[in-house]
Write a structure and sequence with these properties.
Number of helices: 0
Largest sheet: 6 strands, mixed
CATH architecture of the largest domain: Sandwich
Helix content: under 10%
Shape: rod-shaped
CATH class of the largest domain: Mainly Beta
Order of helices and strands: EEEEEEEEEEEEEEEE
Number of strands: 16
Amino acid sequence: KFVTASANGKFDTVRNVVQWDIAELAASDQRVLTIELEPTDVGKMISTVQVVTDNNTKFSANLQSEVTVIGQPLLKVETSELKGPLEVGEKMAMQIQLVNQGSAPATNVEFRVKIPKELVFLAAKGPVRYKQAGSYVIFETAQELPAKQALNFELSFAAQNKGDARVLVQVQSKQMEKPLNQEEAIPVLEKLQ
């Protein structure tokens, strides 16, 4: 996508070209012209520079350059709106969506949820199998999460102890240096008589 051009370069949206009109350029002189572009897709992009004279010499020259735009995954965790405090004994379901907002796939995506002592884990649904290991619910590694796609999970809990429950959602992929941690607060109150 065109951003700017130096020296009054004009962008033609119909032909998708930048054009400079240089009235005169003496022999052995040079003029540096620049453009700034913003990538809109990943992959190899080819640009062509064409120099044309409009005098009687009919001189023209072409030069091509290639740029490779590399994408980057960007993972985000979104959780459902919680309805408010739970009472001891009450059950709830939490929707968790893992979204790749980036421009490239995330690979070897690991997803786990730490259950606080105030809650009891009941069940989970998702695109991959899971196991419970101590206070963690660990989902099998997803080989790939494509760009602009999501994985949806649902976890069910029951409130067992009064307190400020903090559900910790952890995500890691091959492209991430450290895990993404997101905490969700679920207040648990004594059961009203």
